[in-house]
Amino acid sequence: MSATTDLQARFEAVLMPNYGTPPLALVRGEGRRVFDADGRAYLDLIAGIAVSALGHAHPALVAAVADQAAAIAHTSNLFLHEREIELAERLVSLLDTGAGEARVFFANSGTEANEAALKLVKRAAGEGRTRIVATEDGFHGRTLGALSITGKPAIRDPFGPHGTDVVFVPHGDADALHEAVDETCAAVVVEPVQGEAGVVPAPEGYLAEVRRICDAAGAAFVLDEIQSGIGRTGRWFAHQAHGVTPDVLTLAKGLGGGLPIGACVGLGRYATAFAKGDHGSTFGGNPVACAAALAVLDTIDGDNLLASAAELGTLLEHEITALDHPLLAGVRGSGLWLGIRLNDAASAGFQAAAAAHGFLVNALTPDTVRLAPPLTITRDEVLEFTAALPAILEEAR
Ligand SMILES: *Cc1c(COP(=O)(O)O)cnc(C)c1O
Q1: Is residue 185, in this structure, part of any structural domain at all?
Q2: Considering the chain, what is the average pLDDT of its residues?
Q3: On the CB side of 15, how many CA atoms lie within 13 Å of its CA?
Q4: Strand, helix or coil at 151?
Q5: Model-wide pTM > 0.70
Q6: Do residues 342 and 198 make contact, with C-beta atoms less than 8 angstroms apart?
Q7: Which of 92, 154, 225, 357 has a CA 20 to 30 Å removed from the CA of 107?
Q8: Is 359 part of any domain?
Q9: Are residues 234 and 346 in the same domain?
Q10: 3-state secondary structure 4-24
């Protein structure tokens, strides 16, 4: 029995079966490399679902976490601490807020950031504005509020009835959105690129249309950048490529570089829509998580990782597209966030073949493989993967 199969047997005996049994057990990581329980090394091209932005055991993140844990690890919201202020200041400084202000609420995850956003827009909405318009196939999280606006029937429907009045429209269809948004609509919630749907970008001009439709109807524009934000697409936030600013922005995944943190940013009148007592979290804004997030933002800034994500993302996409293989249908996405499209439902086979060759990727949908490597990935590491790709495709077929 290998160390991995032994751990899998113990996992199956005590963990709830909701995830199935993962194929690998990871023990440690270093840079973009991770090591499993049987000592095998892998180049990490998924980064714990677009989370480990600095890769693994990055010295800046390790020092920030260790120093903060040694100083004070938790204060609760009964007391303030400087890290949460610094982090909120930094996030606000990265946004184009025009003349208006922006303020932050910290949570512990993406789904909680969206819960905060839903409560915020309900608080800001006038009498009779209760409807939320969201997108088919969109993903916003697993807790009941975030789940109610998630447009995936397979994960949503078993847990109804949902308390929220929600209407779903096709992602990228401005006409359908226009039809659905009226004076009863509190908010429109969209992702700039639908991550869990297969890394599907909105068509050119769509986000500007969402902005226009929300303004015309007096509804809030909530942008879920939980997966797309913090450098993933080569900009701090994906919406910055579209010349629009949302009213509410949610963040998580890459923000903490592996430490759990989520953020809900309210702009303009949404900055101050919560009154005292309207929302809260015991762990939200935890000092260790905030220190980690500051290390992530500092390192992205100091090491020019936005430019690198744009450049190496283009290289990765170019190298994949240049391959001629019958299983390869194309590539979607931008920056270091790509969906490799297959001509067949072979993504699980692709993922297994990639692991056998020493690469971690994610079988996202039956015919899409997701790549979301650490933003610190190097040119050589990109080419290491693309050199192995023909063999991986051949084995996946
Ligand atoms: C991952 C994700 C979420 C949920 O985040 P959790 O931290 O898993 O709760 C919400 N929205 C989007 C777009 C995501 O990718």
Answers
A1: yes
A2: 97
A3: 12
A4: strand
A5: yes
A6: no
A7: 154
A8: yes
A9: no
A10: HHHHHHHHHHHCCHHHCCCCC
| Residue 253 annotated to the active site | yes
For residue range 214-250, list pLDDT tens digits in order: 999 999 999 999 999 999 999 999 999 999 999 999 9
Domain that includes residue 12, residue range: 3-57+304-396
State in Å: Cα 139 to ligand 1 middle.
7
The answer on 347 and 222 residing in a single domain is no
Strand 193-194 to 185-190 pairing: unpaired
Query: Stretch 312-320: mean pLDDT, rounded?
Result: 98
62 within a domain of the structure (yes/no): no
Residues 36, 169, single domain; the answer is no
Q: Which amino acid is at 330?
A: G
| 36 and 122 housed in the same domain | no
Give the number of domains in the chain.
Answer: 2
Active-site residue, from 253, 274, 350, 385: 253
Q: pLDDT exceeding 90 applies to what percent of the chain?
A: 97
Protein residue with least CA distance to atom 8, ligand 1:
110
Q: Are residues 220 and 254 part of one domain?
A: yes
Is 168 a domain residue?
A: yes
Residue with tokens 């809260």: 280
Pocket (CB within 6 angstroms of ligand 1): 109-111, 114, 139-141, 191, 195-196, 224, 226-227, 252-253
**Span from the CA of 387 to the centroid of ligand 1 (angstroms):** 32
Residues 393 and 397: their CA atoms lie apart, in Å, by: 6
| Cβ atoms < 10 Å from Cβ of 325 | 16
Beta-bridge partner residues of 266 = 103, 248
- Residue 311 and residue 164 share a domain: no
109 CA distance to ligand 1 middle (Å): 7
Query: What's the CATH code of the domain at 332?
Result: 3.90.1150.10
